[in-house]
Amino acid sequence: MKLVGIGDNVVDYYEDQSTIYPGGNALNVTVISKRNGAEKNGYIGIIGDDLEARHVLEALCHEEIDTSKIRKMYGSNGKAYVALDENGDRVFKKTNRESRVQSKATLQFTNEDLIYLKEFDVIHTSINSNIEHELQRLSFKPISFDFSTKNKWNNEYLQKVCPFIQFAFFSGSGMSQDEIDSLMSYVHTFGVKIVVVTKGGDPAICSDGEKRYLQSPVETEIVDTMGAGDSFIAGFLTSYFNTNDVKIALRNAAISAGKTCEKYGAFGYGKRV
Questions:
Q1: CA 107-273-24 angle, 5° bins
Q2: Which of 112, 138, 141, 210 has most Cβ atoms within 10 angstroms of its Cβ?
Q3: Residue 164: which residues within 8 A CB-CB, separation 6 or more?
Q4: Quick one: pLDDT at residue 70?
Q5: Phi and psi of 253, rounded to 5°?
Q6: Model-level pTM greater than 0.90?
Q7: Containing domain of residue 31, as a range?
């Protein structure tokens, strides 16, 4: 399968290590999909011209991700400041949201971009990517969308996005089973094919509109949970497009997420700064 990620990229700055790691949902899913066996992966996003941006590009180059459609700007790349709690969970403390280049421009797709996207089987993007205005133009390809946590979306937002996507991923930590059931049913009314709700250390729930599936996390020695949800998405999409089997895709998604938790950063490449 071939996957292209569109949208957010950052570096995650681990204050306790004085180290930056490449990150961002769309970028993480792209890289980890390649590690899960995707044949070809590309990334389209806005990137700065500072040390952090160069580190992101170096990591993408090393992972053999096609970066030919990245937009480069003068200015600071996205940066999140994070700390580690006693359970190995990363806590986001602050970001440079106001000054980063990603807050000063939005992606607009040319006809050349649209032709390029025809090379891929699926597009993945997220609520942090700011491309809602382009989803209809991109919907000639299956679109996967990460909605993140409950505090980031509402029904109005779902109505805006869901008619143009086929795969919807949510972080459901703190949501009741009734809330999850209601959310899945509602999202399916827009024609979304697959809805997945992950719940951290609890079993993930997947619906194809007819059946519900549960997938427990795999046993692993947790070092850092950063990027585990993104890794789950990458593992699911790569496996699903190769097998068309939800159960196999969920199992491989859990394995992928487990591997990510065994090391620092969403996919490594720590650089001391």
A1: 30
A2: 138
A3: 135, 136, 138, 139, 143
A4: 98
A5: -65, -45
A6: yes
A7: 2-272
Cβ–Cβ < 8 Å for 128, 8:
yes
Residue 198: name the closest of 253, 156, 242 by CA: 253
Helix (H, G, I), strand (E, B) or coil at 80: strand
pLDDT in tens, 187-215: 999 999 999 999 988 999 999 999 999 99
CATH number for the domain that contains residue 36: 3.40.1190.20
Distance CA 61, CA 180 (A): 39
Strand residues in 177-220 grouped as ranges (E): 194-199, 202-207, 212-215
Beta strand pairing status for 271-272 and 19-23? antiparallel
Quick one: which of 192, 178, 195, 247 has its CA closest to 216?
247
| Number of domains observed in the structure of the chain | 1
Alpha helices in the chain (DSSP H): 25-35, 51-62, 111-117, 135-138, 155-161, 177-188, 228-243, 246-260
pLDDT of 90 above 80: no
**What is the C-alpha R_g of the chain?**
17
Beta pairing class for 40-44 and 2-6: parallel
For residue 31, give the 3-state DSSP assignment.
Answer: helix
Parallel, antiparallel or unpaired: strands 122-126 and 2-6: parallel
pLDDT at 83: 82
Collapse the DSSP code of 201 into the 3-class scheme (helix H, G, I; strand E, B; otherwise coil) and give the result: coil
